[in-house]
Amino acid sequence: MRSGTKAAVLRRWSAIPLRLIVGYGFVAHGLAKIANGPESFAESLHALGVPAAHLMAWATIGFELFGGLAVLLGAWIPLVSVPLAAILVVAAITVHSQYGFSSIKLRAVTPAGPQFGPPGYETNLLYLAALATLVLGGSGPLSIDELIARERGRSRSTKPSPAPFGQQRNTF
Fold this sequence. Notes:
Elements: H1 3-12, H2 15-36, H3 38-47, H4 53-73, H5 77-96, E1 106-110, E2 113-116, H6 122-137, H7 144-158
Antiparallel strand pairs: 1-2
């Protein structure tokens, strides 16, 4: 195997760590909102001026859980990335932008350990970049998207190709 071919094969696998980290991150955030109580999240959204806060709370939780699971499985990445990206952009603008870029702000080191301030929008941008990479580069091997593409390729190869324009195909 040539080194260029080897690099291309390895490059295909680079989507898997992104899928695992980003998918798990969304699922973990959705589960945390459920554990803390969806009503509490809805109150936070209401305080931010989000219309239909209860509906938006449940929609966000649903998209984080099911969208995160879809990312983990590499399923319908271009489709699920749209609402997930919207959640990230809204959170970055309404919550994190006031704290600046950095997601880590060391405030003090106490006997209990380091104390951190509120996170900025850095992590939101990293998630957005990872989603964009998965949309543009594909979800990689061991994904439902790849399985679907493979099945489509098989079904196309079993169908006869159309005759050139203006010609009839002999069917006997």
